[in-house]
Amino acid sequence: MARRYRGPRLTRHRDLVTIMVMKAARTMKASELQTKCLAVMDTVARTGDSVILTKRGKPVAKICPITQPQPSVFGFMKGRIEILGDIISPIDVEWDAEK
User: Fold this and answer.
1) How many whole angstroms separate alpha carbon 37 and alpha carbon 33?
2) Quick check: 25 pLDDT over 80?
3) Tens digits of per-residue pLDDT, 35-90?
4) Domains within the chain, CATH numbers bracketed
5) Whether the Cβ atoms of residue 31 and residue 19 lie closer than 8 Å to each other
6) What mean pLDDT is predicted for residues 16-37?
7) pLDDT of 91 higher than 50
8) In terms of DSSP bridges, do strands 51-55 and 26-29 run parallel, antiparallel, or are they unpaired?
């Protein structure tokens, strides 16, 4: 099973041109998957590459790894900080910036 490299792919986003290198997914016959199912799943989980299953030469399914969403940086301190006093009203101290 040889992988094919299709070359760089150009995507135009406003004024920025980005070159994205797309990996060609590995293909496998459905009958071959029946004998190597667990090994294929382990390989997909370990490498992150997808496998396209074919039946009579036509693609019918795709096995791809599940990606975990990255936690957001917004709100990561929620519930850990306590505000003491009034932080909205102005203070009666003259700042150096006002001089």
Assistant:
1) 5
2) no
3) 999 999 999 999 888 999 999 989 999 999 988 788 888 888 888 888 888 888 87
4) 25-66 (3.40.1620.10)
5) no
6) 72
7) yes
8) parallel
Q: Is the pLDDT of residue 5 over 80?
A: no
> What does each C-alpha distance from 57 to 13, 53, 60 come to in angstroms?
35, 9, 9
Q: In terms of DSSP H, where are the helices of the chain?
A: 30-47
Is pTM beyond 0.85 here?
no
CA distance 74 to 55: 46
Nearest to 47 by CA among 94, 3, 96, 98: 3
What's the CA gap between 22 and 45, in Å, rounded? 18
List, in sequence order, every beta strand (DSSP E) within 41-97: 51-55, 58-63
**Interatomic CA distance for residues 59 and 45, integer angstroms:** 21
